[in-house]
Write a structure and sequence with these properties.
69 residues; two-stranded antiparallel sheet; 2 strands; 434 Repressor (Amino-terminal Domain); mainly alpha; elongated; 57% helix
Length: 69
């Protein structure tokens, strides 16, 4: 699943949209749309978006399935 689909699903689950997320980030909605659609964002940006959507990232090893938060 690509990041755009993940973000769209998370926004749907949290009853928000690009406009509301952009408002919280203090940027224009079109700027956020462009970043997401072009894949022109950093890991820091992505983590900030997830934080606003009340989500966390976990890293899970493939061999031992150990979880790192």
């Amino acid at each position: 699943m690509n990041i755009k689909k993940v973000l769209n699903q998370l926004m749907l689950e949290h009853n928000t949209n690009i406009n509301k997320l952009a408002l919280k980030l203090n940027i224009k909605p079109q700027s956020l749309r462009n970043k997401i659609s072009r894949g022109n964002y950093s890991l820091t940006d992505f983590i900030e978006w997830l934080d606003l959507l009340q989500c966390d990232i976990q890293i899970i090893t493939r061999d031992t399935h150990k979880i790192f938060n």
